[in-house]
Amino acid sequence: MSETLRQAIELSRNELLDMGLRGNSLLHFRGNAKSIEVIDEIASQVYSHIVTDSKPMYFAPLPDALTEGDEQDRTAPLPLIVENLEELYGTDRHSDNKLQTKLDADSLDKKLLKINTEADTYYHEQGIDILYLALGFLTWYEDRNSDKPRSAPLVLVPVQLQRLSAKDRFKLSFTDGDMGANLTLAAKLKMEFQVALPDFAEDFNFDDYIESCRETVKSQPRWEVEENRIA
Q: Helices 183-193 and 3-16, interaxial angle, to 10°?
């Protein structure tokens, strides 16, 4: 392939990507009704469980001990929640098949139902899977003078939610679809900052990829790779 043709294809691909920040969760992710943030987990272990081992995972609400009383402890700072989870479950909590959330059981179930319904509707109407597990995030800034951090996912794993009946828990599993980097973020950083995020290798290794991302952005002031942030 000639360099001219390669550049033309790259330009066409970039034109299809949404580079705007407004409402674009691929460039600036903020928790909302269409997402669930996972806390107190190790992303590399989650990747190994759900992708490498092809095993389903389940979402865990905060334990009852942390949601008792008039004011639920999920409004407490994250470090305090993590400390309480460590006291309750120890280090085994990182090697089980559960993804810990800050939601109580009822709120978690309602949110999963909403997300699953929208994903199913979108697939049946347009034939496109829109449900992804985001592993690892990049905190970045639009310029050196900006005081507003942006947060974008780095690794996107295509997943599906399933349950046999309304009484069962939703399980999250890898669809075996193509995984990939955040192409929108990669294009944005390359065009505006001359920062080239690493490509996905055929023998993809999550830890190596995250370390490569960290090495790539280290010259940018205040930018930070949040390895274990998951949504």
A: 110
pLDDT digit string (tens) for 89-137?
888 889 999 999 999 999 999 999 999 999 999 889 998 889 999 999 9
Largest CA distance in the chain: 67
Gap between the Cα atoms of 14 and 63, Å rounded: 45
Rounded Cα distance between 139 and 91, Å, is 27
pTM: 0.86
How far, in Å, are 127, 140, 176 from residue 121 at the CA level?
A: 9, 33, 20
- The string of DSSP letters for 57-124 reads EEEEPPPGGGS-SSS-GGGS-HHHHHHHHHHHHGGGGGSSSEEEBSS-HHHHHHHHHHHHHHHHHHHH
Is the C-alpha dihedral spanning 168, 74, 21, 188 positive or negative? negative
